[in-house]
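Subgroup meeting minutes
Present: P.N., E.W., G.H.
Scribe: E.W.

1. P.N. recapped why we're keeping a running log of single-chain structure predictions: easier to compare across weeks, and new members can see raw inputs and outputs side by side.
2. G.H. added today's entry (118 aa).
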Amino acid sequence: MMAWAEAARPSDWMFRPYRGLGLKGFQKFRVLLGGNTVVPTKENAAFVARAVGRELEATEMVYLLERAAGRLKYCLPGVQDEDWKKGAEVSSSPGRRGRSGPDDPAADPETADPEADA
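Output recorded in log:
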């Protein structure tokens, strides 16, 4: 069964035997059987949307996560919701896509443009 959970794709939920589960139910089933995948949530959707730079459908989001995790040999079921939230945090400033902290030039008063406030 683990081989099936790994070989199945997120879009397979639309086929007859799994259609009644919906995407979330299908993904829960795959996770329970040992697949390296996630159940789509708003947290991991926000994380992927930030990484890709646009909103995605849930099926595409899960597929991209699975592909990236496979290439990086990363265990998706081990990622906690808090980690997805941290990765999806974005700055409230437009166009900065989550940059903040000591390496942020706008946060450093010495490198900030003094005429920007004028």
